[in-house]
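Homework help thread (please don't just give me the answer)

Our assignment gives two proteins as sequence + structure token strings and asks us to describe the second one. The first is just a warm-up. Here they are:
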Amino acid sequence: MPIREQEIDALARHFIEGLLAKNQIVAKAPIEDMLACVVELMSENFETEAQIDEEADRMAEAEARKYSGVDVNRLRTMIKQRLAEKKGFTL
């Protein structure tokens, strides 16, 4: 299930406010600008993961049609890991 925009906004706000509250970062820009950057990065990350998931699903199903008895879930996981590695994406 894809993550909703409101959830990303809330997560980004929680992240920024938590870092500020613990004095782990010093705001050199308005908080709303920092939130916009974090939301953009998180959105891109979730989109990349969704693309990897879709590609892994397609590839796993294609291979499962060729070879009966293959554990599709395990195959999908392995394909997803390899695709993520190739793209330099951490799962």
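The one we have to describe:
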Amino acid sequence: MINLKQFFESLKTMRYEHNIYKNNLFDVYIFLSEHERKYVTSRYRYIRTLFSPIGVSDIAVNESHNKTNKKKRILFLGNLSYFCNIEGICWFVNKVYPIVISNINNVSLYLVGKKPTEEIYALAQQYRDIKIIPDVDNISPKIKY
């Protein structure tokens, strides 16, 4: 069933983005997903775009696993050497993840992106259910459904 609030928020976002692209408000648009970049440039041909990969080009989603598998996954997808991401991941692992695993059974945290630092690898040593997946083109085969 479609959540009406989410549906209307989606429409508002689409209209907002349409106005930005149509009015050419920025000199360049930066995309983290090649799929998203291709979609936008197919609709708005005269905008200038850049692609800034984060270590995973696009994710193929298999929705059938939701009903059959009891395993729960938290996914962080981003550059694993960017200091803001490192700070956020460290905060999450040290402050939030212990609460999550104490209240939810069978949960794993996947940290996916390019160039993980030693600090990121050290976090995985704290918990056996933290998985680091560096520099992959497609995450689907790496996360077993």
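TA reply:
I won't write it for you, but here's a hint about the kind of observation we're looking for: The first strand starts at residue 29 and ends at 31.
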